[in-house]
Amino acid sequence: MILSVIFAASIWLILSREWLRVIMGLSLLGHATNLFLLSSGSENDILPQALILTAIVIGLAIQTVLLIFAYFARQAQNIDDLDDMKEVE
């Protein structure tokens, strides 16, 4: 039940028009996926734990890059809406 709420919240955030909510939704989706992997494996199986650790590192790196891109886009154009970013060249 909790996983479905987290997945639903992450999809809702990803479908938002503001870039910060989209980044938060992607991060939340990664965490929900990690929880799903953790709950699907047995306690003695080391593979889900290794996958989750790798996913945390990669997710943090992607989140950092997206936040840096969003910061510089905000500094250059002062735009929060993703649709407005498409029009800027």
Automatic annotation (TrEMBL):
Pfam families: Oxidored_q2 (PF00420). It comes from the Bacteria. It is a multi-pass membrane protein. The chain crosses the membrane at residues 48-72. InterPro entries: CPA3_antiporter_subunitC, NUOK/Mnh_C1-like. Keywords: Cell membrane, Membrane, Transmembrane, Transmembrane helix. The keyword Membrane applies. GO terms for cellular component: plasma membrane. It is found in: Cell membrane. Belongs to the CPA3 antiporters (TC 2.A.63) subunit C family. This is Sodium:proton antiporter. It comes from Bdellovibrio bacteriovorus.
